Sequence to fold (286 residues):
Amino acid sequence: MTANLPILPKLMVDEAVKAALLEDWGRAGDITSQSTIPADRQATAVIASRKPGVLSGIALAESAFRLTDEAVRFEVLAEDGARLEKGMLVARMSGPARAILSAERVALNYLGHLSGIASATARFADLIAHTKADIVCTRKTTPGLRAFEKYAVRCGGGSNHRFGLDDAILIKDNHIAVAGGVRQAIEAAKAFAGHLVKIEVEVDTLDQLREALPCKPDVVMLDNMGPDLLKQAVGIAGGQVLLEASGGIEADTIKAIAEAGVDLISSGWITHSAPVLDLGLDIEIG
Fold:
């Protein structure tokens, strides 16, 4: 496992996988495997990457086979965070053939989705590795999968933004509009927050940045600013706060954004639109 990855609690993994298996099996279970494969037939299978990428979700794949039938032996051949080449094996299963095939799709759904997020994150992280900026995720996640998707970001070399509405204060443009201004919103947040709660404020202009700085938020999000404006913002802030660039983050823009001198670059795309990494399961013959 890549260093500094959080541990996915087994209980959380098993609960999610159990729900996915029940969704897939429906009322009668895998009637294809039941009708075509003898109950006592054993099999060995491997999961391999069909494209290069970064692995994430091996614990969920293991859970899918274990919860289907404890007699299935699951051997991990690649750890989360591993850089995969085309054809690289990530796991081998042996045991009841029906169980292996019944768990296949759920295991691959988790692996492909999470490895896709890890791979997209790694691509962005590689593009800005020569700068001080970190790539971070957002709350633009699939309902019910946030903890796993944010874990996948970590597998790809990114960092996590807040997990929900309750673990940090992020004052955005609509909050500012209702509160009456940047200063008013930050001051109200400071009066409310406990000593462990970070406060971030989103600004759209350099004037808003200048208004925010004397209020001493922990982070200022610079929304939809191009590299030239970002450089000006970095100069104005002068290291007083962490600066986060957000909006329009793409592979062909992220390098210039990072080189502007910001500390963080947040992207919703890496969780809500990253393409699935193609991994497949094959029965080993002979």
Remarks:
- DSSP finds eleven helices and twelve strands in the chain.
